[in-house]
Specification:
homodimer; two-stranded antiparallel ribbon; about 240 residues
């Protein structure tokens, strides 16, 4: 048990929750380590949504609402941490929700689909094919799902797949706490924010933006700006870290 | 399988190795996440030993060689990643090697002790008592081991235990990739370096420093300097990250 007076109680409890999902097989053991990387970057941005990330979340809402075939791609960590938040975003955008895993087995896909359905998602399922230009398990997706999408939201995605999707001409919206990652650089738009803050941020923006605001956000979106702003925030915090 | 042409192949292979140790029970699932936090900070310092960390490793060698009762405290992650490196440092310093776990069960203690012995360590074992001023499992240690030590080397330690040991008047040498952590701030000396680079760095210094050099390193050791230097290195890298 984590003692409640432990100064990092919240972070440790989330860590235990993910560990519990790993015991059940929803989260890959490698996903626990990936989560730790995210924790470190979240710590460096102050565990809050940056102003620039809020702007990125609004832009993501505008892009998803303007899309013809938007898809939210969900992996084990996203499902474990934010299944309910995915369901709410699906309701706000009408996007397909599709499970795509780095450490892929049919059993894990089914478990994660069940978890998402329990949280209220309508899951786009069915047989997957190796359609993406990648050499391993991440090539799998569904022909009428991610393969046909014009906009794909990838929370917590691997750099290879993000690059492959962008290379296929899709708009890729990434949620990635590491502003230096290949995913963050390859995406059309990167939200440098923790997934349980970022998804509700997009959902809220879907309900509040006028058509004109949405058009302006899409016209002025600049991934380099969003990454630079996150990096500037980290360095500013580091400069005063030992004060 | 991680494809060999993946740009982060080495990091992903280490991650799989830890995951394998987690399947066997040597590494706690929560330890996988902690490793991910370390990965992120290692990435930010460039995955190499900083000049300031090399100086800290030399200082650690001097402190360990001058100690009356030095102890190397080993947890699951350290054993999984660096059992051989612990054995070599033990040979160079004559320190006791003692297993102390955050997520403690007798079975895990035994597994980790076996792993260390196989790697060449002489393990200081036997019944533990709740001797440290901490409210949970981390209070456990051995009366003639960590409890009686004047110098304790804690690779990958939790902030609570680091503070408790320092509060007991011991010199605490921490190996921690996060220069902002409570562990890093509470320690007498922090080495901001990856554990499989830091331990051999200390071992090498044990064999190369003269008595005079050792005295000078101990006299001038400044934890604040070592942390500031690591932070400065990170911010310098971040300033050019998007060039």
């Amino acid at each position: 048990m984590i003692p409640p007076d432990h100064p990092r109680h919240r972070s440790l409890v989330t860590r235990e929750r993910l560990a519990e999902c790993a015991r059940r097989g929803v989260v890959a053991l490698e996903g626990l380590t990936a989560h730790g990387r995210g924790e470190a970057f979240d710590y460096l941005i102050g565990e809050k949504t940056l102003k620039s990330a809020l702007a990125a979340e609004k832009t993501a809402a505008a892009i998803l609402l303007a899309a013809d075939r938007p898809v939210i791609s969900v992996n084990g960590n996203t499902a474990a941490l934010a299944a309910r938040e995915v369901a709410e975003l699906q309701e706000a955008t009408g996007a397909l929700v599709e499970v795509n895993l780095f450490h892929r087995t049919e059993e894990r896909v089914r478990m994660i689909e069940d978890l998402l359905r329990t949280a209220g998602c309508t899951v786009f399922s069915g047989p997957a094919e190796q359609l993406l230009p990648l050499s391993h398990d991440r090539a799998w997706c569904r022909r009428e799902g991610m393969f046909a999408a014009d906009v794909v939201l990838v929370p917590l995605e691997d750099g290879d797949r993000c690059e492959a999707l962008a290379g296929m001409g899709k708009k890729v919206i990434a949620i990635d706490l590491n502003p230096l990652s290949r995913t963050a650089r390859a995406a059309t738009l990167t939200i440098v924010d923790e997934v349980t803050r970022a998804l509700p941020g997009i959902t809220r923006a879907c309900g509040s933006l006028s058509g004109e605001e949405r058009e302006q956000l899409i016209a002025t979106a600049d991934n380099h700006y969003f990454l630079s702003a996150a990096i500037a925030e980290i360095t500013a915090r580091l400069d005063h870290a030992l004060d």
